[in-house]
Amino acid sequence: xxxxxxxxxxLALAALAGCATPEGNPAAYREEALSTxxxxxxxxxxxxxTVGARLDDKMFGRSADDSVSSAEESLSGAAGTFxxxxxxxxxxxxxxxxxxxxxxxxxxxxxxxxxxRRDDRDAMRKxxxxxxxxxxxxxxxxEELP
Amino acid sequence: MTxxxxxxxxxxxxxxxxxxxxxxxxxxxxxxLELRERADGRLAVSALLTGxxxxxxxxxxxxGSWMVAIWRRxxxxxxxxxxxxxxxxxxxxxxxxxxxxxxRDLRVDGFEQWARATVIDKIPGAGRAE
Amino acid sequence: MKRIFAVALGILTAIGGFVxxxxxxxxxxxxxxxxxxxxWVVVVGVVGICVFSEMSGRVAAVSGRATFDLVRERxxxxxxxxxxxxxxxVTFLTFIAEIGGVALSLEIATSVNELLWVPVVAALxxxxxxxxxxxxxxxxFGLLGLSLVVFAVALWQLSPDWGGLWQQVxxxxxxxxxxxTQYSYYAVALFGAALTPYEVFFxxxxxxxxxxxxxxxxxxxxNVFLGFPLxxxxxxxxxxxxxxxxxxxxxxxxxxxxxxLPVALALGKIGLVxxxxxxxxxxxxxxxxxxxxxxYSIAQFYGxxxxxxxxxxxxxxxxxxxxxxxxxxxxxLLTTVDPIAVTEYSVVFSALALPLxxxxxxxxxxxxxxxxxxxxxxxxxxxxxxYLVVIVVASVAAIPLMILTKGGQ
Lengths: 146, 130, 409
Prior knowledge:
heterotrimer; B: 130 residues; alpha+beta; SH3 type barrels; four-stranded mixed β-sheet; three-stranded antiparallel β-sheet; 7 strands; C: 409 residues; mainly alpha; Hydantoin permease; 80% helix
């Protein structure tokens, strides 16, 4: 929610200043992608920590649910804003890689949320690993992106 | 009732000061002063004025005229006068202006009475202190 | 014995009241992104609030008048009104954020959505403000807010690299990945969170309600100089646990539940429960304080009768204002605006409103008319003047930084 609003504000400002916007300039678009992936990494790692805490019985189910759901909301906000941007010509590869990473992250987080809400320990363990992988992939986004 | 006899810097010592009654309870603020010219040509304070009817003209500008306009609209009488406290009721000044009459006798708090009657008295427990 | 108890309670209240939703969120956020490199801002802020609280407390004790009473006298009605609108606006915004914070704390504990809690919290809050005694209010929420000490325990339990943390404290510069603009923006935000105007209004009005006299100045000073620094220390532990858990993981704090996560990791479910109790108490207490402060400011500006020490019907306008605030806060929160976002804006706008709030206090505390022999000494004036400069700098920088960083992104 906040990321979306802030990104929208940033775009308006940039347009006013006559600067290159992510939708006009491939370099700016890549920057935008990186920043989105960084925010996504934050949300995914947040889920990772929460599921780990739940598995170690350090958190109540309700609080873990609240935590994972908030993270999921944040992630879909960031991803949604980015996916809605019009890629400038030449930036299609960046878009594909970024959206693949974001999709994988969202899937893993969804599975985590379902597992936590059902209090299904096996599913939680699986989700913990998947989320961990997604988090690592997002952490290396700079090398991954063309 | 001693009257106040002194040469004052009214701006410093009177205006915008809190008016309190003999129990040190707040009555109102000195929003403006009513002055009269004495026989020797000097000015004396004849009354303290309070309320939006007094504060509005003193604030001036558009904001001030809005204040007055809203206040006039909310008063039932055709030509409302600002709240007025006679200068002879002032006993002394320190960090506040002390008057010798009680708040309810001074009748400068129309808004308070309206708020009390319309809202506060309707809520249970309004009459009890802590 | 009774005196010692009174002092202790005052200190506990100051601690509990010092860590409201703004401090909780901003400190955790800063810890997660900047580590402890902004710790110095908290220290500067704590000294500042001590200096000005002592001044306004002394003014209340010696002259029997509260802050806003005097703001209008010194600045005149036009500037006083501008000040009223600005400070009240910020305090009302903070009030909304606090109610949101209470609702969020309840959501974390019960999984019932925050929006459903908002009207319940507002109603409960208003009933407390209507019926509950001032002293009970302060002491209960002050004591319960003390459970935030669990953050210090959690920090200990996490066995952090103390040397590394100290390194961060002593290198006041942005870590890699953050720019100086971001760093400065959050410095201003942290400063605003430490020096929120309502603290001074509430403190001085509370002093007048409790009928402090010159004899109470020593007790008041003890409360200020022990309570606020301890509260500041609490803020720092919240930042520290976030720095230890979130900074290396690359997680940015954006929700209240994240603030409590490190405590859960360190101390398990018990720690989490205590932290949530602390969140609830701190935000509910702060909601009471900010709600009353809006009422105090308006009533004192216009010269109305105010306070909880008289029956409500004798301070009808004051109670009407408090009621209106509580009622108006609900629809604002029901627009689904994120209370955390409201919080973040409220601390920055606090920084904006500071100069007009604190300048009159400095002037009044020097006025022998009000203060007699208890005017400011040289130390108080030196510190007060230095801080006024800092405050003006922060206030001037607030909006440009907010625009440049797009609200801290």
